[in-house]
């Protein structure tokens, strides 16, 4: 899927919905829905790939590997979490080029200090506005196409207050960001204030279990948002089901959770193509 498709969705659709994906199975399921785009969640990828918290522990190379393999698997545009750009200005340049080449339609860059943390956890600190503006200037120059979108996220709300977060959103838009992401507003009133203050495409992080209210898409659109990401819904649902099923198996109890059909799952991950290949080349294997 070309990145041009995501820009067109933002420009033409009243609202763009992006479920969070964290591995290849979740990406395949989300790709089959009517969602507009997919969001590769750093929180979920670090948890599923490394078994670690999203606290600046994953490297650029590890995340790029996930971007590439997910982007090559799905048909919908993929928005990829790029954390802080994994270092200074040269790192940001390298990261933007790498994510774009890997097939992402957009990269999310944030203004946290290193090591960064999940945006709905405590003890986050932000860099100066000037530092982030410089990063965005480099990111803007690094991309080979303007259709590869830059999402600028600020985590200033928790540490410095909503007004400072809005001020940063304005500065980041002027620095070349295509979409502004103000992390973790704590009420609908705060979200409405953001929507009224910023005349640029806004994304809401609808993180289940986080600080921000979960609102309907109609409500989000009404108060000024053009896009929503849902990073944790699929991950937490999967964790809940796995916890119950594995406990039941360990205790020799019947599995109570509904199970996805085995044959349908085999089809989802490509066994039909394997069988078709084996049938086509059966005579060669016989030789």
UniProtKB/TrEMBL annotation:
It holds the Pfam family PEP_mutase. Its EC number is 4.1.3.32. It is an enzyme of class 4 (lyase). InterPro entries: ICL/PEPM (IPR039556), Pyrv/PenolPyrv_kinase-like_dom (IPR015813), Pyrv_kinase-like_dom_sf (IPR040442). One of its GO terms (molecular function) is 2,3-dimethylmalate lyase activity. It comes from the Bacteria. CDD domains: ICL_PEPM (cd00377). This is 2-methylisocitrate lyase-like PEP mutase family enzyme.
């Amino acid at each position: 899927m070309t990145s041009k498709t995501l820009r067109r969705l933002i420009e033409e659709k009243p609202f763009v919905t992006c479920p969070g994906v964290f591995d290849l199975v979740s990406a395949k399921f989300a790709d089959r829905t009517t969602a507009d785009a997919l969001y590769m969640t750093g929180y979920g990828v670090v948890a599923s790939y490394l078994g670690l918290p999203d606290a600046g522990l994953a490297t650029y190379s590890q995340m790029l590997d996930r971007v590439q393999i997910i982007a090559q698997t799905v048909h919908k545009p993929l928005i990829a979490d790029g954390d802080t750009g994994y270092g200074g200005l040269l790192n940001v340049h390298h990261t933007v080029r790498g994510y774009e080449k890997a097939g992402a339609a957009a990269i999310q860059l944030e203004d946290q200090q290193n090591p960064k943390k999940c945006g709905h956890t405590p003890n986050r600190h932000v860099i100066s506005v000037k530092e982030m503006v410089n990063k965005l200037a480099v990111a803007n120059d690094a991309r080979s196409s303007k259709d590869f979108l830059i999402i600028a996220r600020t985590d200033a709300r928790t540490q410095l207050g909503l007004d400072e977060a809005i001020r940063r959103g304005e500065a980041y838009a002027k620095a070349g960001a295509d979409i502004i992401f103000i992390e973790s507003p704590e009420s609908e009133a705060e979200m409405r204030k953001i929507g009224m203050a910023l005349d640029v495409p806004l994304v809401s992080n609808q993180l289940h279990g986080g600080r921000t209210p979960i609102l309907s898409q109609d409500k989000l659109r009404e108060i000024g948002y053009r896009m929503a990401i849902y990073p944790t819904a699929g991950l937490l649902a999967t964790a809940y089901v796995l916890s119950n099923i594995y406990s039941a198996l360990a205790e020799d109890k019947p599995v109570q959770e509904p199970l996805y059909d085995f044959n349908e799952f085999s089809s989802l991950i490509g066994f039909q193509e394997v069988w078709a290949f084996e049938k086509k080349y059966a005579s060669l294997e016989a030789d």
